[in-house]
Structure formats: structure tokens, C-alpha cells
Design brief:
333 residues; Arc Repressor Mutant, subunit A; 50% helix; elongated
Amino acid sequence: MYLTKLASVQLVLWNILEEYNQDPAAVFKKVRLDPQRMYQPGARHSLQKIAELWQEMENLIKDQCFGLTAATNWHPSHFGTLGYAMLVSKSLRITLERLIRFHRVISDASFADLYEDRAKGALVFTLKYRDEAPYLRGREDAALAWIMSALRVNFQGDLAPLSVELTHGRPDCGGRYYEFFQSPITFKAPSSGFALSLDVVDIVLPSGNEELASFNEQVMTQYINSLTDRTLVERVKNIIVEHLPSGDATVEKTASELHLSIRKLQRLLQQEGTTFIALLNEMRMDIAKQYVKDKKVNLTEVAFLLGFSELSTFSRSFKRWTGKSPIKYRQAA
């Protein structure tokens, strides 16, 4: 199954890279991710590409505890409507329930479980990996750090979990985990997550706003339904856009990600009145027009983002599509 994640979430990673004096644009380019999609409402990246981005960050950043900095590098807008819906939840329990229930807004992958352990007087939140490989150390740390930071914003007071579990070993900077979570930490645990006291999870929060929460839930439900109802043509277009920068936007790759044979994909597209080549050219032309109009993006970069190896090849194609060279089109725009 072709699984995706909301592109704007990667702004958190962009901010972390900048904090560690890395060039985010170069990192995104290396893993063939188009940074411009982070600013397009509803745009999504494949989960495979997100995993590659995290791997590259692990390779680049020498601080083994860098994932914890997600706590200071996020904004609710990075997580779409869900980011705001969490912050107007009337209790910590509802905040976590809402995160799990509407996580599809952020990612197609299953995410976490939530259950009560009355013997320990705890509400336990645990990360689950049903649809993708277990997170790398930095990604696991970042997920828990962001969630704990959001809970603390809601709680508007001191909030420390009863316990925190991490699947990776204790790094040399291990003391920073205790400083951030303010609770006992278990490294090399069978699963990762945290437990909150039942004494605090149902306290009514001053930031709670049921009217806003209800409105946000309606918007999120509509968005999730739109993901489910996407036609084959829309899904093919999404895969094409994802793979254009790598030059891998082929019918073979698309059929593989949709778990279809090439012949069946071509037949289904014909039934929709189109072909793979027609969709590929349509998406290339549409995206090219958007980027060429943006004078902040140089034309060589545009060619790269569309999967062309040379600017001259892109220029010829663009003139064939529009009747103008990229420079003339930009000047007219």
C-alpha cells in the first residue's frame, strides 16, 4: 500500500536541521523531497521518503539526543487541523484520544495505543509500528518529545509522566532525557511510550474549547474522507509528484506502489479516459508553471525537481508545453 504523511510536518525536521547548523535544503534535496510541498495545504509525502529523511538526519547530526529538540521546534500549524484540535481539548486524556483517532490527518500509518493500567494508576500511551519499520532513535525521541510538549502546553503547569520507556539504549547524553521528561526513564524497553497519572489526565483544562474542537473534528473528518475517496487518477498523480525529483516517476514504479500489474494499471487508466504518460506530462507541466513563476527558485532547481537531468532538456520541454521558454514565461508572469 502507498502510505503518505502530511508534508507540513517536515517543517519540524527543517527547524531541527537549522538548529544544528545543517543546510535543510541540501538534506531534502539529497533524499529527493521537494521542500515547497511543505507549504501546500494538504500536500503529502510518501512514508518511505520520510524514513529516508530521518536516516539522513541520523547520519548528519552528531548529537545522539537531537530528537528531543522537536519539543521546541514545532508549531500547531505543522500538524494541520489536528495540531489545533489537540490544543483545545478539555483534558489530557481527550488530547491523546484525539491524536490517535485523527492521526490519519498526519499519517496513513497506525501510530499508537492508549489504555488504562488501574493497578499502577496510569494512562499509558505506547507507540505502535503496524505499517512501517520501528522508528530510528531520533524519530522515536522526537515523537514523544513533541507529544509531551503539546500536553504541557495544554496543562499550563508542571507535568511529568510517571514513567517513560524507550526502545533504544542509553546514549552518552542520557541525562537530557531525565531533564526533559522529569521522570524515570527505561532504556532498551520492549516498546516506547509514557504513562500519565490518572490523577491528572481528566482535569478540565483552561485551554479546552469544545466548540472549536467540534469544528476541527468536522474538518478533519472531511479531510480523512477525501483521502479515502481519492480516485485512481488522483493517487497516480500523487505518486508521480512524489517521484519526479528522483527521476523515478515511471509506470513501473507507480504500478508497484499501487500493488497493481503494469497492464492492469494501464487498463484502469484507459477506463478513466487517460494514460500514465498523459498524467506524467500534465503534472510536469502544471508543477513547472508554478515553479517558473516563483522568481525565488532558480531554473536549474526547477529542472531537478521535475526529474530532468539538464536545464536545456527542461527548457525545450517547457517551450513545447507553453510556447515560451522558462525565462520568457517568468518575465511575463
